[in-house]
Design brief:
Dna Ligase, domain 1; 5 helices
């Protein structure tokens, strides 16, 4: 599928490339508005959905009712802080082996995975330990 070049879509991709905290559509919208003051939230949502469909970004469903977006589409794990709600990549040696291991126990075709670890980020863990 050939798409017409869009400066707004490119700005969305550029913003996501610089982030490792997996921003929401609202966060993307707030940032891209600095460069394109007239952009609508709907345009941001449409472009994020298009980029997900093209496989250029990933949409993360973290159970908080809000989609988060990740520029890194390679298999990797995520950490979700139950204190502040922050999301970050969690590099583990086993991340690349998850698909291989799953294939051993499934007769179908495994195409990918999303793995989330939950707990307290270093900041929230410090705040929690200081309040004890």
């Amino acid at each position: 599928m050939t798409l017409k070049y869009s400066r707004q879509r490119e700005a969305i991709k550029q913003f996501l490339m610089t982030r490792r905290d997996h921003p929401t559509a609202d966060m993307v919208y707030s940032n891209v508005r600095n460069e394109f003051p007239n952009i609508s939230l709907g345009t941001v949502y449409r472009n994020l959905t298009l980029l997900v469909g093209l496989g250029e970004i990933s949409r993360l469903h973290l159970g908080d009712g809000v989609d988060h977006f990740d520029y890194n589409t390679h298999p990797h794990t995520h950490f979700v802080c139950t204190g502040c709600g922050g999301v970050s990549d969690l590099e583990t040696e086993e991340a690349s082996l998850i698909n291989e291991n799953a294939v051993k126990h499934f007769d179908g075709q495994i195409e990918g995975h999303f793995t989330y670890f939950y707990g307290l980020c270093p900041h929230c863990a410090n705040v929690c330990s200081e309040s004890r």
